[in-house]
TrEMBL record:
Name of the featured protein: Uncharacterized protein
Biased composition (Basic and acidic residues): 60-70
Record's compositionally biased regions (Acidic residues): 39-50
Native source organism of the sequence: Streptomyces lavendulae subsp. lavendulae
Residue numbers spanned by region Disordered: 39-70
Length: 70
């Protein structure tokens, strides 16, 4: 299991986005992973989902980050 933020973020992404983000420079991956961690920490709705299913909360936060990247 990935322990660093980038690895955890990549694991939470759907396969299409995972491939696209994995091809980006490490600095960009770290920026996106930071946004993902912030999304997880700041959204109360995700806190509730995290209690029920941590992987689902991580996937939803990753989806939101990638949607903003548009």
């Amino acid at each position: 299991m990935a322990k660093d933020a980038v690895g955890r973020f990549l694991a939470a992404l759907d396969p299409q986005h995972r491939e696209a983000v994995a091809g980006r420079p490490r600095e960009e991956q770290e920026r996106l992973a930071g946004a993902w961690e912030q999304e997880l920490e700041s959204d109360d709705e995700l806190d509730t989902l995290d209690e029920l299913s941590p992987p689902a909360a991580e996937a939803e936060a990753a989806r939101r980050v990638m949607a903003r990247e548009g």
